[in-house]
Amino acid sequence: MSEPLPPHPKTWAPIYKEVEGDVCFSKRAYALAWSLLVPQTTLIKLFADYGYGYEYLFSCLFLVHLWFYICIRRYLHRGKTHALNLFSVLKGYLIIIAPLYGVPMVLSATYAMMGASGGSISEAFVENNAALVKWIVSLDIPGERPALDLSKAKNIVNVYYLSLAYFSGTFCLLLSLPLVPVKVRAWLQIFRGNRPESFGPIRHGYMFVVTILCCLWFLSFYQSKYTYGYELLPSGQFPSDWNRRNWFHQVQAWSLMGSTFSFCVATVIATLNKFFYNKG
User: Fold this and answer.
1) Helix (H) or strand (E) holding 88
2) How many angstroms separate the CA atoms of 212 and 216, rounded?
3) Which of 77, 83, 70, 71 is nearest to 26 (CA)?
């Protein structure tokens, strides 16, 4: 009599299984996007030095999102014989937008501020962007802001790159909003195509709470997080020195908001759909 076979060892399984269908973005597209990380960082810094940093970054964001729209529209109109894996849109957007916008934005700002703090900021940058920075400082943007001495190159860099992160993050957010319905359908496609225990009520609730808190945190920046790296003292006055870590945190948060806000909004809508309508 043969001995019974030993039990098969349990293997790790992901919380979701890949949905069937054509992926929207190929691995070649991912590789191309990440290969442009360093050139994109250099170009943002170079165009900023010549006074065209805003125009360059805004053009890049517009063209990248236009490419997203064209790719998604092409797949959605191919018919049922070529079903689109909608989750590949959700995942692909984050993978591609990070090296083409979010990471280069933060790196170029970090590099510029390091140069300003070390006294090696380009004179061309100061001359080409002085008028723009003065206009930005005059804007009635929500949030307490200190009066800055714009004769100091470090303050020019401070205002320029924090504002670039602020405006480009807002622009990226607006451009990504038309993709929210597709991203909602992507989440519903995942919920529908996976094991019930993978996305049960507890996981749905966790996703809802985390992402809605992220949305509220991002939106709170429009009221309180435009302080050029300064924080009010208990007396209500700004300190004489700025907090470099706080400034970097603000730049990173604005960049992160632009690339992930629509992701969070889509997650909130999808989880609400499952909770209250049980569709898909």
Assistant:
1) helix 86-97
2) 6
3) 71
- Cβ atoms of 168 and 57 within 8 Å: the answer is yes
The conformation of residue 35, written as its DSSP 8-state character, comes to H
Distance (Å) of CA 152 to CA 78, 121, 139, 234, 242: 57, 11, 20, 27, 13
d(CA 170, CA 259): 10
Nearest Cα residue to 125 out of 52, 55, 192: 52
Which of 38-42, 126-130, 235-239 is the least confident region?
A: 235-239
- Give 280's contacts (C-beta < 8 A, 6+ positions apart): 185, 188, 189, 191, 192, 273, 274
Given a contact cutoff of 8 angstroms between Cβ atoms, the answer to whether 254 and 221 are in contact is: yes
> H or E element: which one contains 186?
helix 180-193
Task: Give the pLDDT band (50/70/90) at residue 8.
Answer: very low
Q: Which amino acid is at 40?
A: Q
Specify the pTM. 0.85
At residue 205, the 3 state secondary structure works out as helix
76 sits in which H/E element: helix 53-76
Q: Are 88 and 25 in contact (CB under 8 A)?
A: yes
Q: Phi/psi of residue 250, each to 5°?
A: -65, -45
Measured CA to CA in angstroms, residue 175 lies from 65, 73, 171, 265 at distances of: 7, 15, 6, 14
- Amino acid symbol at 119: G
Coil, helix or strand at residue 19: coil
